[in-house]
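Table S2 (continued). Query chain:
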Amino acid sequence: MYHLLVSGCGWKKGSDSIPSDRVFEYTEDAIRNEFKLSGQLNSQKIASIPAILTSELIYYGNPAADIGVIHSVKISSKSVSFSYSVDSDFPRLTNEDLRSMSNDLGIEDFEFNRTHWAIKDVDLFKVLIKHRFPSIVKPTIFNIDDICTESNLVAVMMPINSEFDNVYTTLRKASNDIKMKCLRVDDIWEDSIIMQDIFSLIYKARIVLCEIVLIKTQMCFMKREFRILLDVKLY
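Corresponding output:
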């Protein structure tokens, strides 16, 4: 999911407000109820997904759009105030960029000309990857095409040796108890390059469990290649 916030006069840096009656327009009822309980906005839930903040085309022609996170919200009688930060790792988009991806982003054309706040049931970063937006650097070690998520998959990242066998056995049993499938990379052999199998397992999973082992050299080597993966999973 992601937030779409469109303003008629641009957004003030770091914090702004929007009329209360424009909040969660063009948002499915089930999603609206998930983010707004008993008339109160769920700040923690709101902060858990990314946001696109842009301006109406009617005022700005082809305004820039930022990708960021909403940190806090406050409701008053006529408006909702919120604070946000922009992710500097993503160069600014334009509404033309958004329009080119609008079908996949779930944005109706008229939404570009109306001040409102919507929540879309779409994986924002997956769409950006699909459209190969220039700010997204395509990995060189593994492939990100045609990987489908599995709602019942638990991916376990840990060293593959006997020292961790009991831990892994326990995790598999716990997963089976809640009708989920638990896999480690040595359980699959889908590609000749193990990095591809590791990436695919993490990307497909609904839950990723990690046994942290500090191996500085390996972490430095993997940092760039897993950057986009981490962006997707953190949101």
